Amino acid sequence: ASYIDKNQDLLISTENVLSIIYEPQSLFRVQPVARCTANLPGHTEAILNVSIRPDCLQVASGSGDTTIRLWSTLTQSPSNILKGHK
């Protein structure tokens, strides 16, 4: 079977094999994490969400215990605790 493309200038066969040549655009190398480098205790339920500021100075973690904790990455301690979030 064959058909004419939408520009009406090329006859394309559905029976032939079309070879596609491609090259990777990017190569990503991911380094494995071998150990935990910090611990941020405080939530009493599972952590459901984590966000990191673009300058990497603060982390926000949201938990099933209805709190959001703002952590300083320099001291690894909570700088603020926001309660009652659902």
How would you sum up this structure, described in words?
- The chain is mainly beta.
- It is built from no helices and six strands.
- The strands form two sheets. It has a four-stranded antiparallel sheet with strand order 3-4-5-6, with no helix packed on it. The protein has a two-stranded antiparallel ribbon with strand order 1-2.
- A hairpin with a 6-residue loop joins strand 1 and strand 2.
- The N and C termini lie far apart (59 Å).
- The mean pLDDT is 80.
SSE topology sketch:
Elements: E1 2-4, E2 11-13, E3 47-52, E4 58-63, E5 67-72, E6 77-83
Antiparallel strand pairs: 1-2, 3-4, 4-5, 5-6
| Quaternary structure type | single chain
Provide the succession of SSEs.
Answer: EEEEEE
* Alpha carbon gyration radius: 26 Å
What is the terminal separation in angstroms?
Answer: 59 Å
Q: Main β-sheet, in a few words?
A: 4 strands, antiparallel
Average pLDDT taken over every residue: 80
SS field, number of helical segments: 0
Number of strands: 6
Q: Give the proportion of residues in helices.
A: under 10%
> What shape does the CA trace take?
elongated
The structural class is: mainly beta
The unreliable regions are none
Beta fraction of the residues? 35-45%
Question: How are strands sequenced across the largest beta sheet?
Answer: 3-4-5-6
